[in-house]
Specification:
Four copies of one chain form a homotetramer. Chain A is an alpha/beta fold. Chain A folds into three domains: 3-123, Rossmann fold, CATH 3.40.50; 125-294 and 314-341, Dihydrodipicolinate Reductase, domain 2 (2-Layer Sandwich), CATH 3.30.360; 361-396. Chain A has eleven helices and 19 strands. Chain A has helices at residues 11-20, 37-46, 56-61, 77-87, 101-114, 128-138, 165-168, 172-188, 290-293, 296-309, 317-336; strands at residues 3-7, 28-33, 51-53, 67-70, 90-94, 118-121, 145-153, 194-202, 213-220, 225-231, 239-246, 249-254, 261-265, 282-284, 340-341, 361-363, 366-373, 379-385, 391-396. In chain A, helix 4 (77-87) packs parallel to helix 5 (101-114). The longest helix of chain A has 20 residues, at 317-336. The model of chain A has no long low-confidence stretch (mean pLDDT 94). Chains in contact: A-B, A-C, A-D, B-C, B-D, C-D. At the C-D interface, helix 6, strand 12, strand 13 and helix 10 of C face helix 6, strand 12, strand 13 and helix 10 of D. Strand 12 (249-254) of chain A pairs antiparallel with strand 13 of chain B. Chains A, B, C, D: Pfam families: GFO_IDH_MocA, GFO_IDH_MocA_C3. Chains A, B, C, D: Keywords: Oxidoreductase. Chains A, B, C, D: InterPro entries: Gfo/Idh/MocA-like_OxRdtase_N, Gfo/Idh/MocA_oxidrdct_glycsds, GFO_IDH_MocA-like_dom, NAD(P)-bd_dom_sf. Chains A, B, C, D: This is Gfo/Idh/MocA family oxidoreductase.
Chain lengths: 397, 397, 397, 397
Amino acid sequence: MRKLAMLGGGFIGRFYTDSIQGYRNKDKVVSIYARREETATQFAKDYNVKHWTTDMEEAIAHPEVEVVCVALPNNLHEQAVLLCCKHKKAVICTKPLARNAAEAKRMLEAVEKAGIFAGYLEDLVYTPKHIKAHESVMNGALGRILWAKSRETHPGPHSNWFWDMEQAGGGCMLDLGCHCVEIARSYIGKDIRPVEVMCWADTQVKPIDAEDHGIALVKYENGAIGQFEVSWTFRGGMDLRDEVMGTEGTIWINSFLRTGFEMFTTGKGADYVAEKAESNTGWLFPVGDEMNELGYNHMFMDMFDAIEEGREAKETFYDGYVVNCILDACYKSAKTKQWEPVQLDIWRGKTGVTKDGHLVEYDADHYLVKEEMTHYGAKKLILKEKATGKFIERVEK
Amino acid sequence: MRKLAMLGGGFIGRFYTDSIQGYRNKDKVVSIYARREETATQFAKDYNVKHWTTDMEEAIAHPEVEVVCVALPNNLHEQAVLLCCKHKKAVICTKPLARNAAEAKRMLEAVEKAGIFAGYLEDLVYTPKHIKAHESVMNGALGRILWAKSRETHPGPHSNWFWDMEQAGGGCMLDLGCHCVEIARSYIGKDIRPVEVMCWADTQVKPIDAEDHGIALVKYENGAIGQFEVSWTFRGGMDLRDEVMGTEGTIWINSFLRTGFEMFTTGKGADYVAEKAESNTGWLFPVGDEMNELGYNHMFMDMFDAIEEGREAKETFYDGYVVNCILDACYKSAKTKQWEPVQLDIWRGKTGVTKDGHLVEYDADHYLVKEEMTHYGAKKLILKEKATGKFIERVEK
Amino acid sequence: MRKLAMLGGGFIGRFYTDSIQGYRNKDKVVSIYARREETATQFAKDYNVKHWTTDMEEAIAHPEVEVVCVALPNNLHEQAVLLCCKHKKAVICTKPLARNAAEAKRMLEAVEKAGIFAGYLEDLVYTPKHIKAHESVMNGALGRILWAKSRETHPGPHSNWFWDMEQAGGGCMLDLGCHCVEIARSYIGKDIRPVEVMCWADTQVKPIDAEDHGIALVKYENGAIGQFEVSWTFRGGMDLRDEVMGTEGTIWINSFLRTGFEMFTTGKGADYVAEKAESNTGWLFPVGDEMNELGYNHMFMDMFDAIEEGREAKETFYDGYVVNCILDACYKSAKTKQWEPVQLDIWRGKTGVTKDGHLVEYDADHYLVKEEMTHYGAKKLILKEKATGKFIERVEK
Amino acid sequence: MRKLAMLGGGFIGRFYTDSIQGYRNKDKVVSIYARREETATQFAKDYNVKHWTTDMEEAIAHPEVEVVCVALPNNLHEQAVLLCCKHKKAVICTKPLARNAAEAKRMLEAVEKAGIFAGYLEDLVYTPKHIKAHESVMNGALGRILWAKSRETHPGPHSNWFWDMEQAGGGCMLDLGCHCVEIARSYIGKDIRPVEVMCWADTQVKPIDAEDHGIALVKYENGAIGQFEVSWTFRGGMDLRDEVMGTEGTIWINSFLRTGFEMFTTGKGADYVAEKAESNTGWLFPVGDEMNELGYNHMFMDMFDAIEEGREAKETFYDGYVVNCILDACYKSAKTKQWEPVQLDIWRGKTGVTKDGHLVEYDADHYLVKEEMTHYGAKKLILKEKATGKFIERVEK
């Protein structure tokens, strides 16, 4: 059983606590910190939390607290983490880890110096679909991974601080792109170095300084491409999809709008309001169990099991740091309008990986271009002659 | 924290235990009974169970055991439940409750006389999708429910006892139809009396005495229709779908083959074997988290919470008994080739409900048949003249 | 090039003409008959038709007319067909052929006696998806067909005559069930005799005498089951789906609501009205090319090609007659509440077909019940001992 | 009725002819040219073509020929078009128009100088789904278009010349990207100038010099983004999808792998080979009517109708030229690793369009950031204070 302090009583703090205290779990939030007293007391009441405070350090230092969960606006993460270091409390921090790589690096170095457990709450690599898909990829079901793409678009976040550059540190790329970057990294291999990025970002619709739409390509040392598409201007609900392409297979995951639950309602029967949907009549696509489908349950299980087993979590501050480095390069590329290198002062994965080859040997004289079954049941080959470079067709019976 | 005896160490006993002991749960299996010693010892080892036995009563009577989970072939349910009565242990029993209504009735009367908690493990009304859909239906999002249909078809069960009439008590209708009947009941209203059934069943493919394919309609007192389609001969995996139709809306749920997870693999990359799938190459449709998606987690949560709160579970032996009564009528109808009444010696829901009316008043002189928006934006009405019975069209601008 | 008279200028007459005169076709409507002059003249203008009339026989007898297309309410089909016989004009008649089997039989005998071409306009066995699926079934891709199910449900027809028993002859079963019956017949084999039916029908919502919801099972001589589900009370648009189950495979076809075209609109941008949809905001599911997807194009191609090649169409009056015989039995069964034989005075298919066997030989001593791949890669068999009837498990490595 | 010469008797020439001579069409191929005699004679026999030749000019000059259809490898387009100019024959040319912009420009100028009809055979903006979606977009159902994305990926083309840089002029970007570019252009507006592009391309799998995978962003003068994703290394069949995002809505189109036709087959029943699929067992996703779904029918209808009505086709050589200009910029960007301007020597659309604004007025003091319905039914607003730039939340009841 883990006892937690929750820092932040807003949307995400509540979502986290629903997961942590949900089902038949052993874990419990014992202290809640919020900036406003009314938020703290309401939270304490709703979740049966013994201790509440508007003093962040008080919550962290609370003697019963073993683990601190940071669910605050981005600009407050560093401060919270440094206090955890001071009080030697295990810390788990919401995404993105920081507003930029410099901040993330300081946080990473601080927790390592303090020797505390530091987990990164990247829920979307803990969704049941991702876990199973990732396992298949690791088993080789898709062959060599060529392209891993992740997309999160919706009509914009719920709270006002997200829209403010100073507090948030960026727009939809920082808010949503951090998920997508880590999803792609996890399929391509977290030990493969991200080398450079190409990014477009724009403010197309919202009256804000930050970007409300962004697309980026992240090139890895082995030649694989990670891609993200994020937006705060999408209409139709929350679109959350991943696509992975390998030499031997493909994975398509839809985590929200098409998960096998479809409802039509005229709205005459009742004033039904669907969660995160943009309408409450017509065809609606609810998700059965958001907490589980969005990965919260399996994420906290990994965090608390890791603490109890004395091991690192699957997602650590180091991962959060790498994500921030990639996003920094994205923001730079969006301005310079060219590929920008990913600056990784700290790199703990493989080095010197080379691009995978694309010459598939067919026989001594030919490379294999393609093999297909024709309509009349014969096998048709397209081969490249090594000597001449010519492409020939051959039909085998 | 609940301490359980698990009766049965086969496929379903293991699935149950995975759910009960999974995630960060507080509950624990402390005794395992299996008919064969090797099954019991293997189970005890795999799930870290302290006590094992091949004597059913020993497991039930074990002093640490608070709750007994019956995960045995159908013909052993009654015996197990009677032993729980004798030892005054809470009991939760897998589906179907019994092989027929007579057996179910004896079990129901026994647990009520003994005054023990008796939960019915009908997982499919606990799936996250069902829970959310059911809530919408209760809120009126679909208006009056007209038709609730459930379908479970797959290529047949894993264990040999299912195929044997004596042990199983029936074929796919008893095995799968019990789910479907309760799903439909839950949408239509568990307090609405099932009145009569019409059923077709046949042995089309398998060398067995029981039916391997069955379809039935269950008529409820308010005129609503429950329908099930079950088969052990379906090719393509496990098809698990529900469809609900109301006067104001529609719900479609797909719990297995199309849940937003799609994978193609040539099979060259790895020897991947997908769960319950019929192939390991080509397009595959895995489910992310079967335990959660199939309702096991929420079902056991309800059971244990109910025990702790001193209330009944959402699904009780009474529900299991009603399901058996409906299935008995189905088997009879399949033989007599006519509608057969559902014989319910015990009925605890509403009585004297009448069929809902179908005359929608438009104005003093007309009933409303249909209202639609035409392509050119006008509202078109079809009305029935009360006096003459004639149908007229009227266009409003 | 064919020259046609179109009888009926309503919704379906216009749809037919759109298809006949559409694309780069050679065929042309040269005469239009409608009961009301304004309908006839408007039609003539819209489709550039030279001759119009409110006298049915005049259109049929028109010297330029080679083919007569009957697109009239059900109660006028027989009269129209008899006039075609009198004037020896080829006739193609919309579905259902007649209001009942007696009427259909008279029409069938009349056209055969007159020796004229008589095609039955059952468009849904001409949809591109059906044509391709049917070909796969005929090639054996699904093995032996066990169950063919078709469903058509929507919020009710556009014109008032459909709702009137006298003109229509029935409700949604006659209107929509005729499609479903022929779809199932075509998968099971049009030469296999439909033997008996079991049907439920009710008026659940609409203020009409006819049924607005019906479900039926049609048993064929070889043991296969055809099923239909039809309703005029469905909410959410037009649901048009088929499902075929065979010993070696499965086919699922969705012809309307989920065809790979999805649109969300807030409705703020424009007053968009989607065809046949029930709403014009939120998620909408249009069909790209209704004329082609619903089979009209391929149906008329077959009709006119057949006339030019001097052969029968794929769908003839005989097929329409068989459908009416099956529907008659459905209506009867809905009243008597038992299986009713299909009375077929004229049967031109196979006779004496017996039910397919279900004993699959494994070896001299066993039948094969099931073969599956286990998670650990071994092949698991369930066998039935011929001598004892016992079911055993066997694992092969 | 149009009489055609078909230049090229390969895969695409046959596909075109199937469409042109299909259904009940009036048009006819009267002369076939192929480079190899056996191809020409076989084609002439299969399609009942009176005249065949291995001399390109002979086919074009044939007195009966009114329209010449160019279905040749890319490197032969210019030569064929110049011969059409010489003989003043209407010409319709397969995609891409040319191997690069310079070639395309010469062809465009030649046909305009010759005064002949010149249609560009970009079938994918003629698919029924595209036509209907495009109509909705033009009607404003999606508001202002922000992002139009198109994706075509499959396991590589059938014929050997595609793989050869000299004949093809490029890899999958030229082969498939040309479709995607025109689809995006058509949603964003063909009169809106494409300004600059950012592109990644690589040869990841195939032993070829050309790219087998490419992704590009095309920025338009109004700030909208066109995107394409193309690959010859995708596994799982032919993936053909478009996604359009506007301020008021979303469109998702799937033209191949998920169109409402799903089939599972064990393969035991028959040696079924599905078209373009990568497997012939397991779950397969056929398309009902490729000719119609891929736009061929509506494309040729537009071409021939245009010729008869003396107007331009919807897709002209000018469109093909713009596409080549965009693709040239893509190839350049893939090398220079930065955004590259689209060089359009000829531009016939709007000029001086400015980026659409993103400041949505709420009231005199605020911009509107977001409006959403909360779970408890209230309307929540996020506003930006014009004076301070601060973001505030406001709940309306």
